[in-house]
Design goal:
heterodimer; A: 114 residues; mainly beta; seven-stranded mixed sheet; four-stranded antiparallel sheet; 50% strand; B: 115 residues; 12 strands
Amino acid sequence: NAGVTQTPKFRVLKTGQSMTLLCAQDMNHEYMYWYRQDPGMGLRLIHYSVGEGTTAKGEVPDGYNVSRLKKQNFLLGLESAAPSQTSVYFCASSYPTSRQETQYFGPGTRLLVL
Amino acid sequence: AQSVAQPEDQVNVAEGNPLTVKCTYSVSGNPYLFWYVQYPNRGLQFLLKYITGDNLVKGSYGFEAEFNKSQTSFHLKKPSALVSDSALYFCAVRDLLGGNTPLVFGKGTRLSVIA
């Protein structure tokens, strides 16, 4: 099993450009998450999904959109990138068992917005 | 609302000495508590979790954590630190009464083990 994979690993964007980050998991997990990690801020949840076709907002959703068309994939979109979105983005997935699930993380995508 | 605090940004410890990384939490109901570790340029890795039962939880790489309900704490410990334990450690909590709400992570504590 590959676990949780993220594409791309690194990207440089200019302000106003758009891009999509792809997260894929092969563990048949129901729940998937997108986080951003910034120095001194820890992990902040952007959006999450509790199943195929469903999404929900997290702590910092503004400027991002997500889609979960297939159970194994969770896409994070930036429609018009801003320098404040420079960050490391992590995807995670979990299979809830009475809400006791352990989250499994991808290796991260480093995004630089100029 | 659920929240978690890691009061120390940085913890320094000499190799071979015991280490403690502190975590306190706040939930309305009973907590599910987790510790994760992040090595440089990597994603987070699960270390251990407390769901119910024994207050002392043992996890990967010789780490353990003690759940203390009266102090609302879940400190991470290891009897003898290794240089390879140097990493960023995150505590996380979920409220049993929280429905589908995701984990809430602390801001992380950087552990530096000095040879």
